[in-house]
Design a protein that fits this description.
elongated; 2 helices; Thiol Ester Dehydrase, Chain A; single chain; 34% strand
């Protein structure tokens, strides 16, 4: 059985959280999110990554977005019940109707923040949609910045 204590025997466990960045989402998986061995389901992690990635996409789109692609998804290390997960998301590409976001997930283990490891990374693409759920053009970046200055 893999446990938090032996999961990183061949890796550097204390990568630390990215300095100077704020997570989009922080969550701790519960026993219901894991199998009988305490390993958190990949699908649960994928759902949380999708939520975290949608937050900057929604801000950039100034409204509703829908996930249209999971471009890449890499599980680097297992996630355990009790890990505190931090999800960092950055926009990496903007199209006419779409926003591509890179998401990194870090796990703080043992509740003492002594062991921190990057457990997942993914790139997802979202499309801005209107109330009719059809693609719509993204607003110009300048209009979003002007609205924030008010």
């Amino acid at each position: 059985m893999t446990t938090p204590e032996n999961a990183f025997s061949n890796t550097i466990a204390n990568a630390g959280l990215p300095p100077g960045k704020m997570p989009q989402l922080r969550v701790m998986p519960a026993p219901s999110d894991a199998n009988v061995y305490g390993d958190v389901f990949g699908g649960w992690i994928m759902a949380q990554v999708d939520i975290a990635g949608s937050l900057p996409a929604t801000r950039r789109a100034n409204g509703r977005v829908a996930t249209i692609a999971v471009n890449s998804f890499l599980f680097k290390h297992p996630v355990f019940v009790g890990d505190l997960l931090s999800f960092y998301a950055d926009i990496v590409k903007v199209g006419k109707t779409s926003v591509t976001v890179y998401v990194e997930v870090y796990a703080e283990r043992n509740r003492l923040q002594a062991d921190t490891v990057k457990v997942t990374e993914a790139t997802l693409t979202y499309v801005a949609t209107g109330s009719d759920r059809k693609p719509r053009l993204l607003p110009p970046f300048e209009s979003l910045m002007a609205a924030q200055d008010r």
